[in-house]
Amino acid sequence: MIVLDSIDAFALRYHGEKKWVRCLEAFARAPGLRPGVCHSIGDSLVYRLVDGPAAAASCFTGHRRYVEIHHYLDGGETIAYSPKGLLTRLFPYSDETDHETFTGQARHTHVSRAGQVLVFDNAFAYAPAGAPSLRKSVLLVTIEGGGFHNK
Question: pTM value?
């Protein structure tokens, strides 16, 4: 997991490729969205707004084809995370949902705060501890190239 303190830090680290530019566009649009409704930009990015109480995860979640990015607009939450290889797989990987589900002990935790951007790369699985009040945008960005050439 990569922790960045702001969208500006994200823009400095991830630039040049179309999918990262689209992330900045999604960050700008997300605060005006209706919570829970998924939107997309091109073929490489899906995003939504989470607003309200957030339940704790009962297990760790990981991806293979997408990087998951959380931008905290208000509030924060504790995130437990660990390398996938140190966890036990609960269910087989689903190519349809790009989800892997694990159980085990967290090797690390991070307490997020408003303004931060968390990038969950494919080597790790994560489990949020829940929060009574939270407002964040959640992006899923493809890891395959920059997208289709016609987009």
Answer: 0.90
